[in-house]
Amino acid sequence: MLITADMKMADLIHLDFQLLAVIQRIGINLGFREKTIDEVCKENDVDTDFFIQIARSFHDKDYFPKEKFFTFKAEWLIHFLRRTHQCILEYKIPEIEEKIKLMVEDLKETTRNYELIKNFFTEYIRELRVHMELEETQVFPYVLALSECIESKTKTEGFEKYFNEYNIQRYLEDHNDIEEKVFDLKNILIKYLPPPTDSCKYNSLLFEIFKLEKDLQDHSKLEDKVLIPKVKLMENELENL
Ligand SMILES: [Fe+2]
Ligand SMILES: [Fe+2]
């Protein structure tokens, strides 16, 4: 089914419940009644086309209108990426941590294995925080400042002061693959840990890790395939002002 502006917002969730994350991160609250996607977006000051393109590309992994994404405001994208960071760090990660803690019961005879997972994940969270903090404190403010310059057709004072030497290429070189370690974590759980006594708990932990991996893949795809090339275009535009 094609996601269109006149589709009911509630039907979109019935079509793909995972799009609830997109709806929340784009800044829309539930309680749609019979309203269409277009009506709900307008009420929430969200650009309908931006919402539809994000929803379509998260729903269908083969759909990714790169050129179209470039036409949307950088601010919208940054807002969405920020809300995703927040959701992952404040909600998803603590949830997985809690599930790992619960697993200690099942693995109490083999504490070393549990310690292995726990330490691996603790180290991973540390890396993830560093990664996202760098984006929040340097990359995103840079993009927003750049966007302001383009809008005002001149280099603003703030831009000259903080970002004159900065460019997106620097970020690109350091933008490491944060999903890789989640894949390793999954493998340790699937292949190497002793069989759990409570497989429900164990499966639920694995399920959360799979979801986290997918979430991070979608997120990095937006950063690598939309944000970075879009910022390169913006940098050129600023140069040619
Ligand atoms: Fe990010
Ligand atoms: Fe990133």
UniProtKB/TrEMBL annotation:
Gene Ontology molecular-function annotations: metal ion binding
Record flagged with keyword Metal-binding: yes
InterPro entries: Hemerythrin-like, RIC_family
Compartmental location: Cytoplasm
Record carries keyword Metal-binding: yes
GO CC terms in record: cytoplasm
Domain Hemerythrin-like: 99-231
Major subcellular site: cytoplasm
Record's keyword terms, sorted: Cytoplasm, Iron, Metal-binding
Name this protein carries in UniProt: Hemerythrin domain-containing protein
Organism: Plebeiibacterium sediminum
Species lineage: Bacteria, Pseudomonadati, Bacteroidota, Bacteroidia, Marinilabiliales
